[in-house]
Amino acid sequence: MKTRSMLGALAMSLLILGGCHLPPSTVQAPPPPPAAPLETVPAQPGPTYVWVPGAYTWQSPTRTYVWVAGHWTIPPQGYVWVPGHWETQANGTMWVDGQWRHN
User: What are the E-state strand segments in 24-73?
Assistant: First the structure.
């Protein structure tokens, strides 16, 4: 009987947790970030490289933005880069990470 109760509790937990959805890569920051600086894009190192633009990241401990410079990289075959971006929402400004998306 005890095993049946534990299995029932486990099944209920899985049902409850299975319905939860949290965005995998978001950070909440109070103010919007400053305007992005103009980046000087160096020469493409090879024909298969793509430019991943720089972006601000929010540093929670210091409550400041830090600029992370862009860079050249070779994409996974069949993928395109979708840049990260900030979205203003009712509860603050949310960062959505850049990611590779299947083409």
Answer: 26-29, 50-52, 55-59, 64-68, 71-73
